[in-house]
Structure formats: structure tokens, C-alpha cells
Batch of 3 targets.
Target 1
Amino acid sequence: MALDKSAVAHIARLARIRVADGELDALAAELSHILAWVEQLAEVDTDDVQPMASVAAMRLPMREDVVTDGDCRDAILKNAPQAARGFFAVPKVVE
Amino acid sequence: MSDLTGLSLAEARAGLLSRQFSARELAQAHIAAMERARPLNAFITETPERALAMADAADGRLKCGAALPLDGIPLAVKDLFCTAGVLTTAASHILDGFAPPYESTVTARLWSAGAVMLGKTNLDEFAMGSSNTTSHYGPVENPWRRPGDNRPLVPGGSSGGSAAALAAHAALGAIGTDTGGSIRQPASFCGIVGLKPSWGRCSRWGVVAYASSLDCPGPMARTVCDAALLLQVMAGHDPRDSTSAPLPVPDYAGALVGDVRGLKVGIPREYRAPGMPAEIEALWRRGAEWLRDAGATPIEISLPMTKYALPAYYIIAPAEASSNLARYDGVKYGLRVPGDSLDDMYERTRGEGFGAEVKRRVLIGTYVLSAGYYDAYYLKAQKVRNLIAQDFAAAFANVDCLLTPTAPSAAFAIGEHADDPISMYLNDVFTIPANLAGLPAISVPAGLSADGLPLGLQIIGRAFDEATVLRVGAALERAAEFRHRASFLTA
């Protein structure tokens, strides 16, 4: 499926990636080219085939519902671009 | 002391145990080699002080006869593994300044076994690429050049820095990750050994995630035996990665002792890709002859879904990446570009922090997961993935492993394939199927191209049968007698 400029702008918005207006056309062409190529999968008959999300033949194990980690607030905040009073700080969300 | 850098890991271990040289001397020789190799841009961060401190600790144990399995062995670590307190970049601008407060399980196991960290190696940004040209820290140069041709070549990717460091003798061993060929293809391009273990064999805890259902940490080395020694320490269940397999880890070095007599080796006819260079097909045929001479039986088999592996991968991997990379939001770590609102800050940070290939994949992934397109793309690709896994399962009912070329070409020039993403993606045509099916696979240097560059052959095995993969890889290695050295070392 060919993507146009407005479709790419919409996807970029969903992905929270700023794309300059001037780059949208070139990106639309590139992404359309890739999508056209992956669409060859349509040739494959997949009726009655289960989707495979993981190659692991196991069920994920359960463990005791206990705290195994934590008490490391300052170590975690150390990498934050902005932190205040023991929290990550972000631009104001609520007026 | 530069001859210390030409040893294999196994030889260096023997030299350390017999006190022919100290771990400090070995570390110093490799620190010097790492400095000489700087023009290749293989390392993003060098950690020489840490290396010397770890070497001194190893010397203490070696002196009192309490040596650990990898005591004093200098290793290069792909900068996708989190290392406590040491800059970890994933070669992305968006992780600027990130020093993890924790250590990945795989690196922690290596250090607990006495290994010495030389530094963090360059890669394609977030491991997305096949040429190591998408790194925010610049491209890596392959230590190999074509004789009489001075143009720099790519080392392959995404673990290009680890492969280049090994080929330039700037490390005795290295670790990488392989999501679609990122250990094996650079191993082929740089004339070294690269092993992608089964999915789940090595813990992914503390490895920056790209496509979680495909990502595999694994060893890179100059010999098959060295790769086995590294895997021995890296492998095993980790309670912190619930998808790591709760299976016993066999003795991999011990598996190399056996021969390949009686083994059936599948030759998948669909890997005879249109346009594949004749020299690669010839090398492949020679590989089959070597294994026949060693007592194995090559058998032509069919994997009919092979041609759909690449397009299925380029739906599944970007889909998982778009989800995994949602965490880079300018809040918790790395780059933040200020904006007028929270959303504006997210968009600016991600717009500036991600490079072109990462953006491409995140956008494709967002699209194939979005409402109205999920079934047509993502679900379809997951079904095709199942068929690809069934192909392999059927093949392994009749054969013990598969022999294929690792890559459809030798190393190419930096800048080649840059204008067409799909022509770059085709580099991984022979490696991606094993990722989709979760199978172990090794690339072993097997010969030189007509223009003097290394070419690898690949052995793919049954899930969790790394032992057979290593044993057949060792048989190939013995027959190929690949003794060539990168032009960087001989210039």
C-alpha cells in the first residue's frame, strides 16, 4: 500500500517522532517502497496457520509474588535529564 | 609484546595458567592494540583503567592457583550490553550520557568468570543495520581492504565494532547480539567466527532491546574453540529473563573433540539465491566437500518458505522495535530536547535523537501494528514465521544440521547500498531464517573472495544443539585452514 504525505505525518504522530514537513514526501516514498516489498507475503497461503509470536515452546514460569528488587530511587534518577524531589520531572501536563 | 595479541583465547589462557605472561601484560598489549586500531573506530568507549584493575585481580587468582574459566582474557563488548557505571549508547544520540546502574547478565557472567573488559564496541544504531554505518558515532572500518584498493570497506553489522576489533587483534574475544544476522554477517565480512545461539540460550537481561522475540546475545572470536569457551560462560537460565531457557548447558569445548562422521548435513536448495556470486556458490560446494571428506553426508533438502523470511522479518522486527523503543521519551535517561508540552518534548526528543534507519523502522513498525493494518501485515508475518519454523522442523527430521553461505557477498565499500534500504536488507537473506526459527547458527571463515576478502560459511542446527553446530563448525575450520590476516595487521 502506498503511503502519502498525510499518512506518514499521522504515523509519525502516533510514534511521537517529529518529522519536518519537507522530509515527509521522501519518507512516504521510502516507506511505500518497503511496504510494497513486504506485501509479497500475500502470495503465501496462511489459511489455518497459527501466528507465531515466540519460538519458545514453554509457558512462562510463575514466581513468588514478592519484591526482588528496589530501594534504588537515586540510582535510577541519576540518568534522568531532569529530576526533582525524588521524581522524574516533565513539562507541565495539567493546568 | 604485540605477539600476545595474535594468540587465540585458548592459547592465551594456557599461557596465563603456565605463567608465561601475566594478565596485566596481556591487558597492556591489548590496550595498546586498541589504541593502534583507533582509525577503525571500532570502539565507542575504551575502559583501559578498568581492564588493568580486572587484570590485576585475575593475576591474584592465577598466582594462587585459583584461576577462573576466563581469568585475564581481554574482551570487547558490543555497546548494546548495559555495563554498570560505564557509558552505554546503543550507538544512538538518544542515549547520550547513559550510564546504567546495573550490569547485563551476560557481561556479569563473563566478569565473574575472570574476563577483562577492554571497552564498548561500535554498532549500527540500536543494532539496526548490516554495515555499521548507521552509528551516531560514525562508521566502523573493516580491517580488511581489497589488495591494491585503498577504499575503506564496511565490517558488516550490526556487531561491526566487535568483529573489527577481533580482526584487528585488539581483543581476544568479543560479544555481540544477533537479531537478523548481526553476529554472523560481520563475522563473515571480517574473517572471524560468530555464533548466534538458540533464542533463549543466553539471557537478554540488560541488553538494549531491538526485537525481543529475535534478539540473541552470542560470542565472537577468532576460532571455533574460543567461541565455545565464551558461550560456556554466557549461556544458561537467568531468573531475570523468564524467556531464558531452563535447560542444562552442555560442555561446549568437549563437544569439539568429537568428529562429524555419520552426520547428515542438509544443503537447502533455496539458498541458491538468484544473482549470488559464483565464487560464493563455489565456496559453498567446497564446504560440502570438506564435510563429506570428514565423514559427514551432505544431502540436498528444501526449505520452500526461504524467500519469505526477509519480508516477514521486516514486519516483525520493526513492529517489536516500535514497541521497545517507545521507552526513549526524554524522561528517564539520555537526550531531552525541550518542547512546549509533554508531547512536543517527546516528538522533538525522538525526532532529533533517532537516526534515519531507526526512524524508518519505528515508523514501519507503528504502521503495521496500527488499527486496520495489524491483520494484513503483522499477523500475516507471524503466520509466515510459523511456516518458516515448520520448514526447518521438517528438514531436521532428516538431517542433523544445515550448511549455507553466511552472506551473499563479501564486505562492500562504505556508502554502498546507502540509497536503497532493501538492497541493504538483502545482506541478511541467509541469516534471518535462523532468527525467525530461533535456531543456533555459526559463521566460520572459509576462504577469500577473488578480490581478497574473507567469506564465511554458516552451519545452522536444531534448537539448543549448539554442540553440533560448534562441532561441525570446527570441522569446517580445520578443513578451510583460514590463516589469512587483515590488511590492517600486515600494512
Note: Chain A touches chain B through 50 residues (CB under 8 Å).
Target 2
Amino acid sequence: MKRTFIALCLAIFLGSVAYAAESAATPATAAPTSTTSSSPAATTAVMPAATQNTPEANTPAPDRTFKANPMVTIPIFLIIIGVTMAVVVWSAKKTKSAADFYAAGGGITGTQNGWAIAGDYMSAASFLGISGMIALYGYDGFMYSVGWLVAYITVLLIVAEPCRNAGKYTLGDILSFRTEPKPVRAVAALSTVAVSTFYLTAQMVGAGKLMQLLIGIPYKTAIIGVGILMVGYVVFGGMTATTWVQIIKAGLLMSGATLLSILVAAKSGFSPFQFFNDIATSPNIIEHVQKTVLKDPLPMPGFDYGQRFLEPGLFLKAPLDQISLGMALVLGTAGMPHILMRFFTVPTAQAARKSVIVAMFIIGTFYILTTLLGFGAAIHVTPQAVMKVDKGGNMAAMMLAQQMGGDISPFIGDLLLAFLCAVAFATILAVVSGLVLAASAAIAHDIYVNVIKDGHADQHEQVLAARVTSLCVGAIGILIGIAAEKSNVAHLVALAFAVASSGNLPVVVMSLFWRKFNTAGVISGLVVGTVAAIALVMVSPNMTYPKKVAADAQKVITALEKQQADGAVLDAKQTADLAKAKGDYEKNKDGKSLMGLDAPLFPLKNPGIVSIPLGFLAAIIGCLAFPNRRSEEMFDEIYVRQNTGIGMAKAIDH
Amino acid sequence: MAEKQQDWSAIARNPKFVELHRKKTTFLIGWWIFSTVYYFLLPIGAAFAPGLFKIKILGRINIGYLFALSQFFVSWGIAMYYAHVANKDFDRLTRELVDELR
């Protein structure tokens, strides 16, 4: 049984590598050579668009103009890989028991754990995405970032310490305390795996695209590279290695952001007034707000377009969606399995408390610095140049690094950019490792050890199960990452938070604080919350609706054909656009969305506002419908334990 | 599970525990509600009172920016205050309770 399981996992893993290696080999014969060979041309032509402030209408192939210098980037990457590998070797020696593997033996201090939480939480998406959003839409990007910090108030006040006192390794441990362990653990594990998979897929696809864009590695090679490192960290080093990778990453990210912020602030003489004045009077920002964002063909007399960049409403135009996302963040962060798991690594509730506070200061400072980077990119790189490299603005911080360093000397520009690339790389590794570990813990500890083996597994077997599971989860992560290259994954992060807030959080809170809560409540709450969140996203505007794509293509066709009819000759780009629009129209005009819909059924991109109340309601109804005396009688025990830590499961098993 | 069998319902009735539980519940729920309301004022305000957010206060810095920035400081403030109260009050009560049971 065990042998077949391991063999199966190995087969999946090797299969994925073979599959990916084959497809990666065709476009670029060997991955490492391709990075060096393709770029000398690119590096000399780095960012002409950014240094000249006026955007030119037809610069050909804008995506080739911005790329990191591999001669600088590769060594920095190798240093990071080398250091983290050393950490893995060191922690592999210390990882002997299940507690070592899942919870680093409870030997992480509060401050270390704080850095690790920050490293686990701040993804490349928040680092690059939010600074890009600020660079393109100003104030709204900053407003968006606030919820990611406020979310930690819920973690601090409601879940951190009780979880440390009442839990052991996983969400299932907390939930099964006074319920029927088997069904509850099974459902909790499924929900953990669902959340981790959504989040992991978004991270993997993002990682692949980022590496492709930054250093020119083919997508599949990037995914496999990241995947192998991630599996290596988790399988050999368990929680200890994952923690230290996250701490290293948080340190790198904070130093990168601080350094760059100082350079940006120096340009405005370290005066906030001057800085805001620079934003509001930048001719490029004024033009960007007028033409691209507000789409006024001619400036409205007397309207201050520069100041408009500092006011809300340029990007986030659906307040209900915003509130819905806010709810998912505030409640979802506290239900994220990889965040909950971090609290089992510290020895006491006091250390758990301290770690959240340390994490809050790091995360908060980081988002404030991100504002400086985003606005800095808008002033110095210009929104036009940022949009030319990536429509969503994801490269804003990177371009800013190169620009700020390049103002000192071109080599420092390359160096700073390479450093930020390395930060992004470390960021991806840290976040995906945490997710793989959380998912593996749910499968190995909850399902294998406690459901299949009834908790009768010795330390050796538990660690083996955990390692094999991590290997499988990692391999599946790689496979999904490769398969999802072309698909729309933007909604997956929102989906992960929606499931965590609608499924996990209600049942965690009620398990810890409500006397009557029982098995039926956990199961109905988890199932309804998770299913509601997923179902609402499936019918939301996040999905691709071919009819809408076709309608948009039709608009382009009509506009261009009208120009042609008026006697204008289309340039090469317009002709290509017309052909593409026609193709899109033909391909999509009879299509339906994944759910067979023509248009979204649910109007919001974030389901939280509906699915969170549903999750709570289902948990309450389920539990009241099937009352259980034993669960009620055991409430005193869990309540005393979670408040005082008396009889706390020792992190180190004797 | 526990090394020593505790009488959990007796501890739950212990006056020290009742005091700890009462103080903690009031504090945690109160501040959680405060922080949540304060946070949701941001998207709600930006959507329904944009005029207010646009008022310039310091040079070009407007209320909206200061309000968003204040969210960070309010969150940190709550965190620090909680740490202070927890270290002083909650931990002391817990220690006294644990000592009494020993």
C-alpha cells in the first residue's frame, strides 16, 4: 500500500518533469544557454522608452526593451539558491520527528516567526501588482493595499493565540478537538488543499510569467525550476527550511523596498510636500490621467488632472466589490491554512502574539514603502512607459529600480534591477513553499495518519508520509502551473481568500468560542462556505465570457472598417489588430463560458459579501439541527485550553 | 491527550478564569469591531463621499491619503495596545490561575 503510494507519486513527479522538459526543449534547446544567448542584444537596448519621457506611438516590440542583465542577475540568483540550499541541508539534519517537520519542533522565536509570517504573506503579486496599480491609477492602488494589513487585526485578536494553545499541526487539529475526528479532518483537509491549490496555481503561473519576462527563461523551465527548489526545501527541510527561506525573503524584500524608497525620496529632497507636488505636476501623469484613464480627448479647462491621480475612483469603480474583497481579506487571512500553520511553530501564546505584531510592522511598513515605489515609478518611469512593458503595470517597481540605479551609473541600474529580480524570485519561492507545506500537512497528517491509520503511525512513518506527500503536492503544483499557462488565473487569489473566509474562518471561530458547536456544524459550514465561494466565482465576471470577447472584437472591427471606408489607409499595427479582432470574433461568437453562460450570473468579482454570511449561517444551522452533547461538554476543555494554554499539546513529542 | 487529567469544567468555573474570560472577550470583540468599522469606512468613504476625500490638507496631500495612511497607524496602535494589555493583564491572570491549579 505504502510502496504503491510512493511509486505513484514518483511516477507523477517524473512524468511532469518529462512532459515539461520535452516541451521546454523545443523552443530553446537548453535552458541556461538560452538566457545568456538571447540577451546581449536586449541589455544594450534597455528601456529607451523610460529614459525619454514622451511616449512614441510606434516603438516596435516594446517587450524586448526591458530585461535584466543576466551577467548580473544569474550570479545573484545562484547566491540565493546556494544560501537557501545550505539552510535546507542544515535543517534536514534537525528534522527527525513529525513535530520537526510540520512545526519546526516549536523552536521558532516570536520575532523569527514574525518575519516568516511576513515572508509567507507578501507575495510577488502584492509587491509588483500593488506598486503597478499605484503607478497607473494612483490613490486607488494605495487604498487597495490597506486591507492586507488590517486583516492581521483579526489574526492577532481572534485566532493566533487560541490556535497556538489548542492546535498541533493543522486546521484539522483545531476543528476535530471536540467533534468526530475522521469526517471533520477529511473535510478540513479538503478545504485546506482547495485553498492552497488555488493560491499555489496563481503563484506558479505568476512565477513562470515573471521569470519569462525578466530574464527570458522559457515559461515551462521557470515553473520547473521554481517547482524543484520548492519541493527540495519542503521535502528535505520541512518547516525549519521553509521558515528560514521565508525569513531570508522578507529581509531581502524589505531591504530592496527600503533602498529603492530612499532613492525615490531623495529625488524629491526627502520632502513629502515636494513629492506630492512632483506627482501632481508631472506632465506625463497629467496626460496619462486625461487620455488613458479618464479618456477625455481634450483636457477639460480648469480640471486638475494631476491632482485627480491622488483622488479615489480611477481604478476601483465598484464599491460593493471593494467591500466584498475587504471582507474576504479581513476574515480570510485568519483562515488561510499556511498562515494558521505558522502559529504552531512557536512555543507559547505569548510568542504567537509577538510574532503577529512583528509581522504587522513589517507588512505595514512594506505597503507604505510600496506607495513610494508606485508613485515614484509614476513620476520617474512614467505611466506610459510602464504600460508599454506590461498593461497591468506589474513591471513598475522593476523599471523604477533600473531607472533609479541607472541615474547613478548604468551598471548600478542593472545591479539594482537584478537585485529586485532576485527579491521577486525569493518571494515566489517562500510563498509557494509555505503553501506546499500546508497542503502536505493536511493530506499527510489529517488524512493519512489520522483518518487512514487512526493516528497509529510512528515518528518515522509520519515524517516519511509527510515527505512523500510534499513531493506529490509539489509535482502536482508544477503540472498545474504548466497546464494553466494560458488560462486566466487572476481570480484565483481572490478565490483562495474567499474560500478561506467563507469556509475555514467561520468554523475555526465557532469551534473555539461557541459551546454548542459540533461535527455537523463544522462539516456544513466548511462545505457550504467553500462550495458557495467557488460557485459564485465560477459564474462571476472573473471568468472569460466568449460572447463578450466577441462583442469587443466586433467593436474593434467596426471602428477600423469605418476608418477604411472613410478612405484612411491602416498602418501595419492596425491591420494586424483588424485580423486579430476578426479571428477573435469568429472563435468566440458562439462560445460559452466554462459554466456554459453567455454573461455572468453574479455581478461581483469577489464573492465574500454573499459567501461569508452563507458559511456562517450554514455552520450555525447545521450545528443546531444535529445537537451533540459530547461536543457541548467538551467546550469547557477547549475553552480553558485556548485561553490559558493549560495542557497544551507539546510541540516536541516525547 | 493531556499528561495529567484536568477537571476542565471546574477550571471554567474558577473565578480567576471567569474574570480572565470576561475581560478578554470585552477587549477583543470591542477592538475587533472598532478596527473593522474603521477599515470599511475607507472603501465606503471613497465610494460615497469622494468630495470629502478630495479636500487638500497639507499642500497637495488630501484627506483621502491621510485617512488611508491613518489605517496603518490605527492598526499598529491597536496591536501595540493589545500587546500591552495582554502582557500586563491577561498573562498575569493566566499565570495566577495556573499557579493556583498546580
Note: Chain B has a mean pLDDT of 88.
Target 3
Amino acid sequence: MQATRMISGRAIPWGAKNIDTDIIIPAKWLKTVSRDGLGKGAFESVRAVPGNIFDAAENQGAPILLAGDNFGCGSSREHAAWAMLDMGLQAVIAPSFSDIFSGNAFKNGVLAVTLDEAQIARLMAVAGDGATITIDLENQVVTSDRQDRFAFAIDPFRKMCLMQGLDEIALTLAEETAISAHEARQTHDAPWLVPSQI
Amino acid sequence: MSKPRTLYEKIWDAHVVARRDDGTCLIFIDRHLVHEVTSPQAFAGLAANGRRVRRPDLTLAVPDHNLPTTPRVDAAGHPIPIKDAESAAQLAALEANTQAFGVPYIGAHDVRQGIVHVVGPEQGFTLPGTTLVCGDSHTAAHGALGALAFGIGTSEVEHVLATQTLWLAPAKTMAVVVDGQLAAGVTAKDVILHIIGRIGTAGGTGHVIEFMGSTIRNMGMEERLTISNMAIEGGARAGLIAPDDVTFAYLRGRPMAPKGAAWDAAVRHWQSLPSDADAVFDKRVDIAAADIAPSVTWGTSPEDVVPITGHVPAPESFADPAKQDAARASLAYMGLNPGTAMQDIAIENIFIGSCTNSRIEDLRAAAAILRGRHKAANVRWAIVVPGSGLVKAAAEAEGLDRIFIEAGFEWREPGCSACLGMNPDKVPAGERCASTSNRNFVGRQGPGSRTHLLSPAMAAAAAVTGKLTDVRELL
């Protein structure tokens, strides 16, 4: 994972609710064995409409997306986070996220920042007016160059991993003793848990 | 006296390997199902870091999403190559990765191949009280057997392959209690669609839903799998149903399930799992079975549910302005006008399949409606895709394939198929599909496709009349 501390730039004032991961990246793009190059399929059905918000000149290269409730619902495809990163989006600010998307975003260093609806409505207004929005992870605050300052909460462990760009698997492998102890206990108490092999 | 616990809390507590100060726990994973779409990058990550699969014996790989459902061998019995180069490459990667890492693999030409969520229970790989994950959100299905089962992303797939664990924050608990007897023609699919219509697609976010009540207790295992499968459509990463004699009878003798004395020990453990009578849930929703009608979706979210006797709603009928906007966009995409009777909506395509509704009882329910009938002239394409090769064989042994074929359906090979159209099975732009799958999202069954979710019996009824139809008129 890349270390992420500060994301600053334009925000795309989309605001749509219940955006499912089929919208973020349709299934036909999932036939890949790589994490790269998925940006061209990102938000395909939205971008098929002329005049859509993602292809507006002022939103090119914007690192932040403003969205509505329940962002990333539906399919568990991590390709959604990969596609967003590949098109340059490094953060989503929304009132709520699906559980699976929020985990996938975190694993890829995409910030999923939860603010309340009124705060997002304000950011939508200033972003539409060309404001620069900044997400400061260390201080857990979203600011704009229009005097806005909104604090957000984040799981302390996730924050540490994001800021240091830690390899979570390496961290977990350091728990080897505890994992082996669990396995030994399981073998003793419930040997039937190991499936008969096919 | 220890604190009363829910089924979820009992499974959680038994799997904690380590605990952080903030309550996040390292949870041991007992079962890992792997398919071709969400695993290649995970295996590549292992290889790049010189890591191995920690517990191949707890892992099972099956291809399902990409496989064409047309015949897989020619007249001479030779495998037919897959035309789509990207699909072929992804399928080949799964086979190569499972060989390289020593993971048990059921291949495309094995009669046991099928949709991972059909194969897991069918093989007895899924067991009560276990933690089970897969890189697929419909992993929630396995909760029907009392397993804590949920979908994960590819980074988590890699994490489980490498460590057999996941770092998880405890979920909240939600009880959805359905009581009473279902009316004739009302199935498990109608129950779960009704529930999602009630709680909304974010109703269970952050929660594990335990489905309870006499209606659920009286269901067979396959009906329970349909219910728990769609917990994710209600926002819950996992669904759960307490294991009972129905569960044990279903599992006994399955190939990967415990045998002999081990079976007896397992059952004794499983009997201790149901939620304690005085266990506390964070949220509770009560539903009367008598209020549930055969149900169907009108929009592009699984919460857009109405009884088949109902009408396309007016966007203004929703209190939330954002939902009004979403409804307007849905109706434009679906080509529907407010006030149209659901039963006046003509259908060109029928899909009976998916991890929600492709088991033998689903096929029996559809065949019961289709027996001696034929699809309407305006139904251009009607396919049945059994959930596994074993389901297909069982259906053929009962003669169900003949009923479908005589009714004008195509009888296909197993896989995910038109549920998400990663293989060649797609619904054309602008056309409608009466589908027994789980998602009616924009473009889900193909770009521009219009999906109406319903039960297998209702899909069969729509095939017969060429429009959405109350199956009770054909019983």
C-alpha cells in the first residue's frame, strides 16, 4: 500500500446515492488478471451520457469524489477501488459506505471519508464553484479554501496503516504464534473442522 | 452465569486469534472459497512476495463467473476452447494458480463444478459454526447453514490465503423475525425481496442479520440459502440462520462433511450454537408472513420491490427527495411509467439461475408451472442455468430438463451466467428480463438491460404469459 497523508485538489460534486460497484466498474471489465488499466471502464454507464460530470473539463484530474449515502454497495469487486485509482480518484467523501467497499478502499490507500449530509452539501456547493478541497489524514480534517473545516473519524489502526503505507499481510504474519496456537486448539477441540479432501 | 449471546457472537468468540485495544480482532477463517475473477491478483501478490497458501486444506477453488453455459465438450468428448480470450486467460490462471499453490480445485469439466455458493453447501464444505469467506459478496448465502460467511475483496483474499485470518471489527446484530405461514405461491425469494423492500439496501449496513421466526424455521435448506444469499442486498455483509435438524439432515453424508464419530461430535457442537433465548440484538424487524405476496422489482435497486398485484410507483410517492430523484432515474432507465400495473409489463427474456435460485427445488418450482405449457411468442430468450453439474444431473434424472425444453427454454451448463453477464449470456440493451438472480442494477445483465427480480415460479409464469404475472393464477 502507498502511504497517504494529504489529498488536495478539485472535488467532483456528484452526490449520487446508493452507487453500486457495478456502476463504478461493470462486470465486463473484471476479466483481467491485473490491477491496472481499469480507469477506462470506471463509471462507464454514467460517462456514456454526453455532458456527464466525470468528463467535464474542470473535473479532469480531480482526486476527490463527493457522493451520497451507501457508496459502493453490491458486489465485493475490489476492481472498483482499482478503477477509481486508475482514473485519478484518491478519496471519496460520503455520508455512508458499504462495509465491503470501505475495506477495499482502505486496502488500496483510497480514503473513504464519512461526513454528514449538511457538510457534504456545503462541499458540493463550493466544489461546484471551483474550490480546492483538502483531506488531511493526520489531523482528520477536511478543509476548503472557502473557510470550511470539518473533522472526521477514522479507525486508528487504519489511519496508521494508511499514513505509513504498511503491508497488512506482513503485520499479520508477525502474529504467527497466536495463529498457530489457534490452529492447535482447533485440532484438539474440533478435529472434524478439517474437511475430508475431494 | 455468562452473558447470553447471539449465534453471531458465539461464532465470533470461538475464532478470535488476537485482539487489539480498539476491539478489532484477528479472526481465524475456517473455509475459503476461491473463483477465477477475484483471485488472480491475490495469487500474483503471494508469488511476488514469496508467500505460500497457509492452509490449502481449508481452501476450495471452482471456476464459475466466466464459464460459457453452452456445451463444454464436443461430440467426441473433447473440451471446446473458450472463445473469449480474456475469459479463457482468467480461467487458465485459476487452474495454474491452484496447481502452483496446492489448492484443491474442481475444474470446468468436473460434474461437481458449479457456482461457488451452490458447490460449498452441496459438497459439505460449508459447515455450521465456521467462518467462511470468498471474494464474492453473495458468500452471505452460506449463513443459511449457520456459518459466519461474508464476501471479501481481493486484498483480503490474498490476506486469507497467506495467513488464514482477517482483521475485523465486530459487527452489530440485527434480528429479522418472520412469523406465520406463507400463502400458496409465495416463496423464499418473495420473503427476502419483501424484507429488502422493508429495510432498504442500507438497512443492514454494519450489521449481521440473523433470520429468525417460524417461517424461516419451517423452510428447507435450499429456501434458507435463497434468504441468506440476499442479506447483502439489505446491506448486511453476512446473514445467519440457526443450525437445526434441517441443517444436520442436509449435511449428513455430504462428501466433505465430517463422518462417523466426528459427525456426532460436530452435531453436539452445532446444537450449542443457536442464539440464547435472552440474547440482545442491536436492531429488530418483525414481519408477518401473511403480509407477503409474490413480489417483483420495478427499479434498479433491490429495494424497489412491489407485490405483483401492485403498480409502478410515482417518484413523488417517496418522502426522501434523493429517493425521488433515484426513482425518476430508475424509471427512465427501465422505460416504465408511474401507475402502470406490474402485470402489464411485457418480458422478452427469462433467466432461471444464479446463486440465489438455481438449486433443485428452484428448478422443480419453475418446472411445476411450465409442465404442459410453452413460453409466449414475445419471449425471445429463455434459459435455465443449473447451479452445479450435480443439480443439472439430478434435474435430468427427474425429467425436468424435458419440461423446460418442451416449454421453449434452453437447458444450459452450470455457472453464474446472465446474473452478471461476464460470460456470453447477456440481456440486450432496452430489453427486459424476468430474472431469478439477485441484482437489478443498471447494466447488470448487460449494458442497457432491464431486470425484474422474482422467484423461479414467477419467472416461469412470466415465460408462459409473456408478461410479469401473478403465479397464483397458474397454480
Note: Chain B has two domains: 1-293, 296-473.
